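G., the chain you wanted modeled:
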Amino acid sequence: MSVALKNVRGSLERFAGDSGKKVANLVISSNVTLGVERPADSGVAVWFVWDGMQVCIAVDRYPKVEDNLQAIHHIVEARRTEMRHGGLHIVRATFRGFTALPAPTKKGWREVMDFLPQDEPQITREVIESRFKRLAAQRHPDRPGGSHEAMTELNNAKEQALKEKGN
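Predicted structure as tokens:
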């Protein structure tokens, strides 16, 4: 994993040097959770700003997170090749296709469901279900202070929690 991360960062640095335009606001995101060797979703997304464009390169083709990171490294290296043989205008046109996804802003399921790090050993299916019911009573759109957005976020958090914990 560390080699794949190093490759992505290195290829972006070389890309910035080749283009003469800096890469800023780099975010590398995945569903990797400490202690979980193989997450159910091994996809990876890399967000950055280059030449005034917010770019997102996402790959979920491979079963291993590090292989998806390596694929992103190869995509960036391909853009470097395009730059050498076709120029900046081709790379800009290519990156326009990578601008559709926004940078990650959503909270993880633990944060949405108000779990603290010290709660981790006790988080079971029953605890998740109980916490969901309590929070749903507060966040439901029919309740004061509740909303559709808060309930959707809670439903998604519960689904992710149950998928990860699998108890």
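The chain has a mean pLDDT of 86.

Shout if anything looks off.
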